[in-house]
Amino acid sequence: MATHTTGMQRTTAGGGTAVTGWTVFAAIMMIFGGIMSIFEGIAAIAQDDVFVTTRNFTFQWSLTGWGWLHLVLGILVTLAGLAVLKGATWARVVGITLAGLSMLANFAWLPWYPFWAITLIIVDGFVIWALSARTGSDAAA
């Protein structure tokens, strides 16, 4: 069975695509970050008194509104992570875009749940780096 290596993806003679290296790392981190955002959104929608609200913050949106934003964004990030794991080439660009949007949403979320928001900002930063980094055989091309 002949294989042809292209960047961080390996195409086999059967036509399937297997992702390797940093792409697998990014996909797993996207799925993890997306699921965390889903839980974050559910918690904000279900029970507003779980979170501490700060007065006079620039982003004056209701906690339920933030919950819906994080829920939808978490679902999209998780689905994009699954697409990256399956080797879809369009999913890398979508993944970078969604991770950037998630990073911005979590930055604005800092007053309500700082530890969780900082954790997801770091995860999104690693996802963006891993999806856009050119390392190993990809850098030689």
From TrEMBL:
The keyword Transmembrane helix applies. The chain crosses the membrane at residues 21-46, 66-85, 90-109, 115-133. Keywords: Membrane, Transmembrane, Transmembrane helix. Residues 22-134 form the DUF7144 domain. It comes from the Bacteria. Pfam families: DUF7144. InterPro entries: DUF7144. Coiled coil: none annotated. This is DUF7144 domain-containing protein. The lineage of its organism: Bacteria, Bacillati, Actinomycetota, Actinomycetes, Kitasatosporales.
